[in-house]
Design brief:
With 327 residues, this protein is of the alpha/beta class. The chain contains 8 helices and 15 strands. The chain has helices at residues 13-18, 48-53, 69-78, 93-106, 120-131, 160-175, 275-287, 295-314, and strands at 4-9, 27-33, 43-45, 59-62, 82-85, 110-112, 137-145, 180-187, 191-198, 203-209, 237-242, 246-250, 253-258, 261-266, 318-319. The chain has a 9-stranded mixed sheet with strand order 14-13-12-11-7-10-9-8-15. A 6-stranded parallel sheet has the order 3-2-1-4-5-6, sandwiched between helices. β1 (4-9), α1 (13-18) and β2 form a beta-alpha-beta unit. Residues 322-327 have low confidence and may be disordered.
């Protein structure tokens, strides 16, 4: 079995949340680069460039600050490394395009994540919707109340729009067969409320608050965002309303509310933190399978998040281009 050797650029919170996934036997965390070493026990190199040059590294996991994602992802691609880059993919669509082009030119895989669009219950609901057995998807509702504003010090670029919105945007895009074509939103420092219109006539309402008062984990059986004791991760309360049933992803699987029935389409217990990210990365690198969360996917998610920001600022509906889901 091919074992992917991972080098991580950036040892902050994003890396700490992702690090348990590197216990997966298909990958090995071999090196890291950061401005300082907060106790990393593996091989520590002096710069991201040195990490990207390292012949012992197959994949660079870019977990540096948002504004450095494009620079570091392009650097990794130029050195022939596959790239897993944290969300948001970048801060501008131009930077996203540079990253996509760099990966294509180098012939390397580019996976954007992790986000809660990777969560197994979301992927399970996606399959149920795609099957057509419950009719067409018409509406989605996503709601999450967290303590984002109180978790840690953040800079001016680390806002709910670029840090938290990608989770909700990714998961409703993952559920929908269509693509977002319009955005109308209100929001500010603490949160947002957005209405997304899709090209097939479906729509999604996204509501997020990071004030740290009500915690919507209460609506998920008290299971935290990262899951626990075999429960799958989640990003709050989500319902996908089809013509003949409502589908609600939960930490145990997908609840199906149909005509006169409410039943759980159960998933096996969650095997390991963010194993779905490793699945997608491994399939892309080892088997050449196009990732769902490709560079083009990440670019479109950012486009929607920027539209939420702009609509909140301007008070106007924002029209989007109909970009394909995958490169």
């Amino acid at each position: 079995m091919l074992r992917l050797r991972i080098g991580v650029a950036g040892l902050g919170r994003a890396f700490r949340l992702m690090s348990p996934a590197f216990a997966d036997p298909r990958v090995e965390l071999v090196a890291a680069a950061d401005l300082r070493n907060p106790g990393f026990k593996g091989r520590f190199v002096e710069s991201v460039e040195a990490l990207c040059r390292d012949p012992g590294v197959d994949v660079v996991y870019v977990a540096t600050p948002h504004q450095l994602h494009a620079e570091h992802a392009c650097l990794a691609a130029r050195h022939g490394k596959h790239v897993l880059v944290e969300k948001p993919m970048a801060l501008t669509l131009e930077d996203c395009a540079r990253m996509v082009n760099a990966a294509r030119t180098a012939g390397v895989a580019l996976v954007v994540g992790p986000s809660h669009g990777f969560d197994a219950p979301i992927l399970q609901a996606r399959e149920l919707i795609a099957s057509g057995r419950h009719g067409s998807l018409r509406m989605m509702t996503a709601l999450n109340f967290t303590d984002f504003l109180t978790r840690r010090p953040r800079d001016a670029l680390d806002t709910v729009f670029v840090n938290q919105a990608p989770h909700q945007v990714d998961l409703v895009r993952m559920l929908s067969p269509g693509e977002v074509v319009s955005v109308r939103a209100h929001g500010g420092e603490a949160g947002y409320s957005a209405l997304l219109g899709f090209d097939d006539g479906a729509f999604a309402s996204l509501n997020y608050s990071g004030r740290g008062h009500f915690d919507s984990d209460e609506l998920m059986g008290g299971i935290g965002e990262m899951g626990d004791a075999g429960h799958h991760p989640h990003f709050g309360f989500v319902v996908a309303s089809c013509e003949r049933a409502d589908l609600r992803p939960t930490p145990e699987g997908v609840m199906i509310y149909g005509e006169g029935e409410a039943r759980l389409d159960a998933l096996p217990p969650h095997a390991a933190p963010r194993v779905e990210v490793i699945n997608e990365l491994y399939d892309a690198v080892a088997h050449g399978k196009a990732p769902l969360h490709s560079g083009t996917w990440g670019m479109t998610t950012l486009e929607v998040c920027l539209a939420i920001t702009e609509s909140s600022r301007s008070g106007k509906e924002i029209a989007l281009g109909n970009r394909p889901k995958n490169a």
